[in-house]
Write a structure and sequence with these properties.
Elements: E1 10-14, H1 18-28, E2 33-37, H2 40-48, E3 55-58, H3 67-74, E4 85-89, H4 94-103, E5 107-110, H5 115-170, H6 176-193, H7 204-213, H8 226-229, H9 237-243, H10 245-261, H11 266-275, H12 279-290, H13 311-326, H14 337-346, H15 354-362, H16 364-373
Parallel strand pairs: 1-2, 1-3, 3-4, 4-5
Helix pairs in contact: 2-3, 6-7, 6-13, 6-15, 6-16, 7-12, 10-12, 12-13, 13-14
């Protein structure tokens, strides 16, 4: 069975003279579907009907609304911004032709019309329109495919990173819910901070990367002995010193991954990080290495203070403490959330960035909702 013949293009012919409409319609109907309009207003009405015309032949000199004004209004109508328009007119002033072309007309045919010239130019413009439409369709299809693959890559990356983070947490008797909670806490803090003038410049991509990097905060625990990680009680001073090394181990591991991903000289690698090529890994490195630093400089591993501590690490510091206090550990029962909140607020300007604590206060109920939504299976859950 043969393929159906392609649909004939639809042309709209606009002229206030019936004789001209009859002449042009007679020339074109053998090859095209032809619609006609005898005024500018009628042309706008007919052109707005779906399916829209593939090409418009438009007279310039018409009463009430000339062709120039018709074209201006056509370009403001949905679906007609790119429809090719050919002016067909008795006006022979070069300035009139230039004015029409500047408004977006694709051609200018003088009257009296020569049939062979008219048909040739109409077919040329329809072929160009068909080529543009095909290119647009292909671009749209390509963009859709790229977007689909990017979503798949993001899903794979997110799942891989989460699995990697869970390996570290599993060695520490933690659950996957700890990762979900802390990521959600960081996201809630970012949402609040962006409402302040000081942090209004944080873009969506940056905030998304910070939240997604949060589960990697304790990745360095893979380098800590099991006897310390899984000890069913409080650590000795010596054991705690070894435990503190997980921040350095995590930051160093991510830094190594960055250097292998971009085997460039130091200056060019810095450029790659700032341009976004390694932005996510840099954020993860900041979180892993700095989430135990304190605002007053009393934290570890580097004793950074204030704004020396990267913002992602300052956010993770509060989220991690909130979750550690409010959840059961092998060495302690969960703390009531009222007491957890009091400790967080008391640490403002000492352990925690004051702005981050203020954001937490504004998101207190959101934190509680997150804690409840991702609660561990605990026979004695934390009480408000």
């Amino acid at each position: 069975m043969s393929d159906p013949a392609p649909a004939r293009p639809t042309l709209l012919v606009v002229d206030d003279t019936p004789e001209n409409l009859a002449l042009l319609g007679g020339l074109l109907r053998g090859s095209f579907h032809v619609r006609v309009a005898n005024s500018g207003l009628r042309a706008l009405q007919v052109a707005s009907r779906v399916p829209h015309p593939d090409l418009i032949l438009l007279d310039v000199m018409m009463p009430d609304m000339d062709g120039f004004e018709v074209l201006r209004r056509l370009r403001r109508l949905p679906g007609l911004q790119d429809t090719p328009v050919i002016f067909v007119t008795a006006m022979d002033d070069d300035r009139d032709e230039l004015a029409g072309l500047e408004l977006g007309a694709v051609d200018y045919i003088p009257k009296p019309v020569r049939p062979s010239i008219l048909l040739a130019r109409v077919r040329t413009q329809l072929e160009l329109k068909s080529a543009r439409d095909q290119l647009s369709d292909r671009n749209a299809s390509l963009e859709h495919e790229i977007a689909r693959r990017m979503r798949e890559n993001e899903q794979v990356k997110s799942a891989s990173l989460h699995a990697l983070a869970m390996l570290a947490e599993a060695r520490d008797n933690e659950t996957g819910n700890h990762l979900h909670r802390t990521e959600a806490y960081v996201e809630a803090l970012l949402d609040r901070l962006r409402q302040s003038q000081e942090h209004a410049d944080m873009d969506d991509d940056y905030c998304r990367m910070v939240a997604r990097a949060a589960p990697l905060h304790d990745i360095g625990k893979v380098g800590i002995p099991d006897a310390i990680l899984r000890k069913p009680g409080r650590l000795t001073a010596s054991e705690f010193e070894q435990m503190k090394r997980h921040a350095e181990i995590g930051a160093a591991a991510i830094a190594t991954a960055m250097s292998r991903a971009t085997p460039e000289p130091a200056g060019r690698q810095t450029e790659a990080v700032s341009s976004g090529a390694l932005r996510f890994l840099e954020i993860a490195r900041q979180i892993a290495g700095g989430h135990h630093e304190h605002w007053d400089g009393s934290g570890y591993p580097s004793g950074l203070a204030g704004l020396q501590i990267p913002l992602p690490a300052r956010l993770m510091a509060l989220a991690d403490v909130y979750d550690a206090l409010g959840c059961r550990r092998v060495y302690k029962p969960p703390m009531p959330l009222d007491e957890v909140e009091q400790i967080i607020v008391a640490g403002r300007g000492r352990q925690f960035d004051p702005a981050v604590v203020d954001a937490f206060i504004g998101q207190r109920e959101v934190f509680r909702a997150i804690a409840q939504r991702f609660a561990d299976d605990d026979p004695e859950p934390p009480t408000p």
